[in-house]
Write a structure and sequence with these properties.
It is built from 3 helices and 4 strands. The chain is α+β, with helices and mostly antiparallel strands. It has a single domain, classed as YhbY-like (Translation Initiation Factor IF3, 2-Layer Sandwich), CATH 3.30.110.
Amino acid sequence: MNSARKKQLKAQAHALKPVIIVGQSGLTESVLKEIEITLDTHELIKIKIRADKEERNQIRDQIIADTQAELIQSIGQVVVIYRRKPEPKAEKNTGPRRR
C-alpha cells in the first residue's frame, strides 16, 4: 500500500470510534473472530487495546498476523487496521428449482 492511500485511510479513520476493545483477557479466540467479522464488513476499523505498552505491541502484531490486515496507524491504546473485503462468492446456478 502506498503512502498516499495510507494517508487517505488515516483521514477516513479519524471519525471512527473503536468497534473492538481488547480488555483484561487479552486477545482471545472470540475477540479475534469478532475482528475477522468486523473487517469483512467494514474494511477499516479501530481497535482499543487496554494493556501496557509492551503487551499492546504484541497484541497489535498478533492481530495483524492472524487477520492478514495492514496496520494503518497506532496511537496510544488505539490501533487502526485495514483489510480489503473478500470478493463475494458466486452462487452455483444449477438450473430452476423445483418445489
